[in-house]
C-alpha cells in the first residue's frame, strides 16, 4: 500500500537536484545552498560587503568543483585519513576555540550544526591539503644559485639574524615628575627586578598588586632590525631568561629575554649508522620479525658481514643496497625509537632489536662526530622561505591546470 501521493512524491524529488557533474562525482543543489549559507554568515560576521548574488553563486560553485576534482585525485592515489589523525585535527580546532573536544561537540550541536558533518569537512580539507602539497611541491625547484642570490639581499641577511622573544613592562614616570617621586618609582622597580632575578616569574612579578602598575606585554619573535632602538641596544647582551632594567624618558623599562634563536654557531652531534629492517606481514608475525633481527645480530657478532646481511634481509629499500648504510644522521632526523637506540649504542657495537612504526631494526653505530651545521641551517631556512614564496603561485597555476583538464558539466 502506497501512503505517498503523486504530488508528495514530485515534491520529494524536487528537493534536490544535480547542479554539476565533475569527472565521476556530482555536486547537488543542497551542497551549493549549504556552502552559500555558510559563506553569507561568514561575510556578515566579518562586516564584509556581500557581492552580487550571481557572482557569489558562480564563485562558490567553482570552489566546490575544484574541491571535488582534488578529492577525486586523492582517492585515486589512495590518500586516507585515519580516525586518529582526524581526531587530532578536531582537537586542534577545538583548542583554537578554547575548548576540549567534548565541549566543542556540544557547542556545535547547540548551534544546530552537525559534529559528524564538521568531521567530514575537516577530513576533506586534510585530503585536499595533502593532494595540493604532493602535486605542487614537485613543481617547485630551488637552485643553489637562487639561494646564494637571496642570501645576498637585505631580506636574506635578515633571515640569518638572531631572533628574540622579549617581554616588556613599563612603569611610566613623567619627565617632569619630582625627584622624590622618581626615586620611589625606581626603588619599586628595582625591588620587582630583584624578585624576578631570585626566581619569581616575570609575568607574576610585574602583575602583582602594588603602588605602581606596569604596562607592556610580549613583543613576540623579532629580529634585531625590527626591535625599537631601546630594546635593540640591550637584547644581544641578554641570555635566555635574563631580565634587565632600562631608563628612558617614558619611565623605567623591565626587559626580559623570554627566548632567543638563530644567529649562533649550530654544532650538531652526528652519528654514522647502518641498520637492518624487518617488517611484520601476513606471512611473518611481529614476534617472528623480532626473532629474525635478533638472529641477524648474533650472526653479525659471530663474524658475518653486517652489510651483506643488510643487502640480503633488510626491507628498507632506500638503504639495503648500500649495506644498510644511512650515512651521517642528526638528532631528530630518524623516528624517536630509532634515535633513542642510536644514542644509546656505543661506537662499533650493534643494538638490541628495536621496534618502530616501520618494523624491527638492529643498528650498528660506525662513528660519531661534531658537525658545524650553521651554514646548512641558514641555507635550509632560505630554501624554505623561497619555497613558501613560490608555493602560492605554483598552487594557483596547478589549480587552473586541473580545472581545465577535468570534465565538468554545469547544469
TrEMBL record:
<dbReference type="InterPro" id="IPR023058">
    <property type="entry name" value="PPIase_PpiC_CS"/>
</dbReference>
<dbReference type="InterPro" id="IPR023034">
    <property type="entry name" value="PPIase_SurA"/>
</dbReference>
<dbReference type="GO" id="GO:0003755">
    <property type="term" value="F:peptidyl-prolyl cis-trans isomerase activity"/>
</dbReference>
<dbReference type="InterPro" id="IPR027304">
    <property type="entry name" value="Trigger_fact/SurA_dom_sf"/>
</dbReference>
<keyword id="KW-0732">Signal</keyword>
<dbReference type="InterPro" id="IPR000297">
    <property type="entry name" value="PPIase_PpiC"/>
</dbReference>
<feature type="domain" description="PpiC">
    <location>
        <begin position="161"/>
        <end position="259"/>
    </location>
</feature>
<dbReference type="Pfam" id="PF09312">
    <property type="entry name" value="SurA_N"/>
</dbReference>
<keyword id="KW-0697">Rotamase</keyword>
<dbReference type="GO" id="GO:0042277">
    <property type="term" value="F:peptide binding"/>
</dbReference>
<keyword id="KW-0143">Chaperone</keyword>
<keyword id="KW-0574">Periplasm</keyword>
<comment type="function">
    <text>Chaperone involved in the correct folding and assembly of outer membrane proteins. Recognizes specific patterns of aromatic residues and the orientation of their side chains, which are found more frequently in integral outer membrane proteins. May act in both early periplasmic and late outer membrane-associated steps of protein maturation.</text>
</comment>
<protein>
    <recommendedName>
        <fullName>Chaperone SurA</fullName>
        <ecNumber>5.2.1.8</ecNumber>
    </recommendedName>
</protein>
<keyword id="KW-0677">Repeat</keyword>
<feature type="domain" description="PpiC">
    <location>
        <begin position="268"/>
        <end position="367"/>
    </location>
</feature>
<dbReference type="GO" id="GO:0006457">
    <property type="term" value="P:protein folding"/>
</dbReference>
<dbReference type="Pfam" id="PF13616">
    <property type="entry name" value="Rotamase_3"/>
</dbReference>
<dbReference type="GO" id="GO:0043165">
    <property type="term" value="P:Gram-negative-bacterium-type cell outer membrane assembly"/>
</dbReference>
<dbReference type="InterPro" id="IPR046357">
    <property type="entry name" value="PPIase_dom_sf"/>
</dbReference>
<dbReference type="Pfam" id="PF00639">
    <property type="entry name" value="Rotamase"/>
</dbReference>
<dbReference type="GO" id="GO:0030288">
    <property type="term" value="C:outer membrane-bounded periplasmic space"/>
</dbReference>
<dbReference type="GO" id="GO:0051082">
    <property type="term" value="F:unfolded protein binding"/>
</dbReference>
<dbReference type="InterPro" id="IPR050280">
    <property type="entry name" value="OMP_Chaperone_SurA"/>
</dbReference>
<dbReference type="GO" id="GO:0050821">
    <property type="term" value="P:protein stabilization"/>
</dbReference>
<keyword id="KW-0413">Isomerase</keyword>
<dbReference type="InterPro" id="IPR015391">
    <property type="entry name" value="SurA_N"/>
</dbReference>
Amino acid at each position: 500500500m502506497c501512503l505517498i501521493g503523486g504530488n508528495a512524491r514530485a515534491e520529494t524529488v524536487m528537493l534536490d537536484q544535480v547542479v554539476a557533474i565533475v569527472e565521476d562525482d556530482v555536486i547537488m543543489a543542497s551542497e551549493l545552498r549549504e556552502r552559500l549559507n555558510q559563506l553569507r554568515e561568514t561575510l556578515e560576521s566579518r562586516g564584509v560587503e556581500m557581492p552580487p548574488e550571481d557572482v557569489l553563486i558562480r564563485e562558490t560553485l567553482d570552489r566546490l568543483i575544484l574541491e571535488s576534482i582534488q578529492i577525486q585525485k586523492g582517492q585515486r592515489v589512495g590518500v586516507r585519513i585515519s580516525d586518529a589523525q582526524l581526531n587530532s585535527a578536531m582537537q586542534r580546532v577545538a583548542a583554537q576555540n578554547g575548548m576540549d573536544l567534548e565541549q566543542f561537540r556540544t557547542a556545535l550541536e547547540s548551534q544546530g550544526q552537525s559534529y559528524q558533518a564538521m568531521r567530514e569537512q575537516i577530513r576533506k580539507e586534510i585530503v585536499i591539503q595533502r593532494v595540493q602539497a604532493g602535486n605542487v611541491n614537485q613543481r617547485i625547484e630551488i637552485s643553489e644559485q637562487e639561494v646564494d642570490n637571496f642570501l645576498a639581499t637585505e631580506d636574506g641577511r635578515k633571515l640569518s639574524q638572531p631572533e628574540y622573544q622579549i617581554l616588556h613592562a613599563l612603569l611610566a614616570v613623567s619627565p617632569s615628575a619630582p625627584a622624590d617621586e622618581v626615586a620611589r618609582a625606581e626603588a619599586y622597580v628595582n625591588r620587582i627586578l630583584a624578585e624576578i632575578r631570585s626566581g619569581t616569574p616575570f609575568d607574576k612579578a610585574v602583575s602583582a598588586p602594588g603602588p605602581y602598575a606596569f604596562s607592556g606585554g610580549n613583543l613576540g619573535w623579532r629580529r634585531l632590525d625590527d626591535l625599537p632602538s631601546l630594546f635593540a641596544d640591550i637584547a644581544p647582551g641578554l641570555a635566555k631568561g635574563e631580565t634587565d632594567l632600562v631608563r628612558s624618558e617614558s619611565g623605567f623599562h623591565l626587559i626580559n629575554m623570554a627566548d632567543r634563536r638563530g644567529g649562533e654557531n649550530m654544532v650538531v652531534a652526528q652519528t654514522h649508522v647502518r641498520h637492518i629492517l624487518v617488517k611484520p606481514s601476513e606471512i611473518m608475525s611481529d614476534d617472528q620479525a623480532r626473532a629474525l633481527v635478533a638472529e641477524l645480530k648474533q650472526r653479525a657478532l659471530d663474524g658475518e658481514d653486517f652489510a651483506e646481511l643488510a643487502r640480503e634481509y633488510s626491507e628498507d629499500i632506500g638503504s639495503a643496497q648500500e649495506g644498510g648504510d644511512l650515512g651521517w644522521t642528526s638528532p631528530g632526523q630518524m623516528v624517536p625509537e630509532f634515535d633513542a637506540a642510536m644514542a644509546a649504542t656505543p661506537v662499533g657495537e650493534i643494538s638490541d632489536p628495536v621496534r618502530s612504526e616501520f618494523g624491527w631494526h638492529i643498528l650498528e653505530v660506525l662513528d660519531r662526530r661534531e658537525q658545524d651545521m650553521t651554514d646548512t641551517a641558514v641555507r635550509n631556512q632560505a630554501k624554505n622561505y623561497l619555497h613558501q614564496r613560490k608555493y602560492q603561485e605554483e598552487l594557483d597555476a596547478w589549480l587552473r591546470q586541473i580545472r581545465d583538464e577535468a570534465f565538468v558539466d554545469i547544469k
